[in-house]
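Moderator note: this is an archived Q&A kept for reference. The question asked for a predicted structure of one protein chain; the sequence and the answer are reproduced below.
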Amino acid sequence: MLKNKISKFMEELHGGYATFFNKETGRVGHVFGERYNNKIVQPNEYGLWLSRYIHRQAVEAGIVKDVRDYIWTSYREYIGLEPIKFIKPWVILEQFGDPINDFKGVAKRYEEFVTGEEGEKFDIDWENLKTPVIGDFEFINKLQGKAEMRRMPVLKELLHSVSNELKTTVEVLLEPAGHQQKRLRAEAINILYKNHKLKIFEIAKLLNVSRFTVMRYLED
């Protein structure tokens, strides 16, 4: 039931619950410090580090001394102290062996990774990773490529809208001839960037020009 509904749950928690809480306590403003956000994480050292980081938070904060003693994460399910319910830990556990045929062995190796010094080698500065996709260069490029393929039809439709707004054609914006048509393309670039918040690389790809060309038109 929870599949693909975490974002909706967090939206209602931050919104509906906050409204209820403020009404009951007579306060105003945000109940929680920051908005909920999520990231796509490559299930290699980045995923492992994040799993370890989450499960160790109570220890690092001085709430408990043993990771096992904190019941508000899924750690106890990862290591077999509680039955696995709705979580799916396999993408992490499979990196420590075969959890189906050797769950105890895998759970022990994962526990050593979380609690021992072995996990310290994955010293990734999560606070400085601001992008929505976390992973190596190849992984990020692959996902960005898929995202661009899904987004491009929408951008092309947007380009048609902008060409209509400027009372010209897409063909003119793609291959302007003469000063007047180049001025129209410059206007289109500024509209796409300022009004529709497209990124420079998106505009460059959409108009089949270099990023330098886009930046030059934005500076004019």
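Archived answer notes: The chain has three domains: 1-38, 40-135, 136-219.
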